[in-house]
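tool_call: predict_structure(chain=1)
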Amino acid sequence: MDSSLPLLVAVLGAVLGGGLLGWSFRRASQSPALGAGIGAVAGVFGVGLFMAPLNFCTFEADRTTADNVFGVLLIAAGFLLIVLPVRWVALRLAAGQRLIGAQSTPGAFKGTVLPWLFLLPTLTVLVLFLYYPSFDTFRLSTLLARLGTPRTAFVCVNNYTRLIADTSYLNSLVLTLLISAAIVVIGLVLSLTVANFAYQPIKGAKIYRALLVWPYAISPAVAGVIFLILFNPTGGIINYFLGSLFNLKIPWLNDPAFAPWAIILASVWKSMGYNILFYLAGLQNVPNDLLEAAAIDGANALQRFVRIVVPMLSPITFFLVITNMTYAFFDTFGTIDYLTGGGPLSSTTTLMYRIYQVGIRNNDLGKASAESIILFVLVIGLTYLQFRGGERRVSYGA
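tool_result:
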């Protein structure tokens, strides 16, 4: 690696950061020179956020094109992670605005020390159990580390770039996206349908609704055990009835074509109680006068449901899409472990379960850490896209 490369990257970060904040300050009628100075410092720290700990190893002479590209992406990511928040804070401070909106209700803090003092226990927990483990996971992902072996070796970003040619990992990625999409779509459609029927005025409705919600209190592992009893190919309840009624037995957990559907059905059943709870609360806020006016105009029950109820529940649906997507990516581990163990033929090995297999069963902590970082970035990216694209179609008014 050229010894002057870190200096050139730092200069590039200073120029880009200074130019961005200088232009932003000028548009906000603030001092462009002040913005350029702040941006230059932020740009230098940004481009070195990830690459400085790695000592710019991705640009060494023996590195592949994939390593070089990954290094450029790390530089860009670090630059954006530092410069954009600094830009937001600097513009607000330069304009004399508060970083946190003023609270006009009684009981507002008059100073700034006391609120931070009350936040200190929470911040301490976040730093110790969230932020530090996250940075340590990134450090571990750059090492050749084996579970139970104290010695490690620095391998730069090999744990990341080698995944590009790993067909089993790519298959797990596609499988995870398909299973997650099925869990979210099927779960929300069924939950809204059931919630709409459960909302109808019937005798004993409170007890009936409470029974619909209780599966959410069950852990994913217990859900896996329940569905193992149901879908067991030899002694399962479902195959027993299918055999008695139709002389049919389906290899639910032994066939790669059926095993993912067993995971999907178990996960949908597990999350339906949570979704129904929110949809029942949302249905209480749908104005009856709109439904009555639509009925007078000749709209049938299905038309009223599609044209009025569904759009008015869009804020809740938007929230549930985010939470169900997170559940589908992370919380299905227990269900998969007890129900299929990732099989058959890796047909239910999602990214989350693969991390367990690679890190614990195969003792490859470095590669498992890299895969966990990629999964985290993937979920963050999908969540960001949901907020950017989905929130525009959410209606918060009547």
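agent: The chain has two domains: 5-97, 166-393. Proceeding to next step.
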